[in-house]
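This section describes the prediction task in plain terms. A model, or a person checking by hand, is given the sequence of a single protein chain and must write out its three-dimensional structure as a string of tokens. No templates, partner chains or ligands are provided. The sample shown here is typical of the held-out split.
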Amino acid sequence: MPRIAPFRRPLSRRGLLAAGALTAGLAVLGLPALAADAITIGIPVGLSGANSVVAPSVVQAAELAVEEINAKGGILGRPVKLEVADDASGAAGAQKAFDSLIFQKKVDVLISMETSAARNAGLPIVNRGKVPYIYTSFYEGRSCSPYMYVNAWVPDQQVAPIVDFFNGKGAKTYFLIGSDYAFGRGMLSFTKSYIEKTGGKVVGDEYAPMDATDWTAILSKVKAANPDAIITSTAGGAPNVTLTKQLRAAGIKALYGNLAVDEGTAKSMGGDAEGIYIAGSYFTNIDSPANKAFLAAMEKKFGADLKTPNDLSVPEYEAVYAYKAAVEKAGTTAADKVIPALAEVSVEGPRGTIIMNKQRHAPLTMYLGQVQADGSVKTISSFKNVDPGEQCPKLK
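The expected answer:
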């Protein structure tokens, strides 16, 4: 049921005059007059832990979206504000962050990029609080809730471009390396099945803890197996950096596909990232007016502090606009009205047209790219409107 607004003491005559003066002042300045009751977006995100490398870019993207929305009158005439909570990139931190945002901060919606461990720990709290939740991180797929929508890719959309390309390069044998949790194992389970279905052979698959920093033992096994290609799926951020650095230092020359590295993290790796093949729904070199406008706005707002926009931060930006569209379609922030509207609204953003109408997921244009020496990504090929496949068939 809709949350009942708490009792508020009526404004005094002085308070009413002050409020009127503020509204008049905004009008004189050419700024929209906004109601006092803000719509609050909660962002549980890994400011510490494995996701700490990429989380700042996600927060920046949300901040830009909110600034733009407020500059044009907010949502239903109400201002929008953010509440950011550190989930420490894991389950225990997520439980605290979700509980605080939903039951203490009373947020209207959660919009976040998180590890799968954090998402899985937070979902029961979302279900209990009955708050809309837009998950903006690529993930292993098939996580379902009546309150959750996903606007990022799943393995059904991301794995084939890399494996098909490697097969075309003559790869017959593969070694898989992942973080030992839902994302790492889920992504590589799908990858192994696809490799075998397309005629390849997996000669090894190894997993390390989410916070692993020493990959020596696993890389020794890779050397012994001498595969044609390596595909990795680690927790986004820090594990990508340490694994790639040690893989390069070990002198391993196999084709290298990474299912979890984003463009921003690749740039932070320096020369170690050169040659990595990645597939995603967003690269900064997408040649479209919407992407150019987004990049220019980010540069203007953050300047030298700008974190590289990437396939984890851009979905966050677009999701804020998707929530705005859903609330405006519903005419209310009430969850029972907003949730069905989320499947009906579309957003024209840096990635193109995004609509989460496939079992709470979104068809996406996917790109295959290779990281260059300067950390930029060279696009090799693109695939239009790739269907996410069967994800949540029991949900409308």
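For orientation: Residues 1-33 have pLDDT under 50 and may be disordered.
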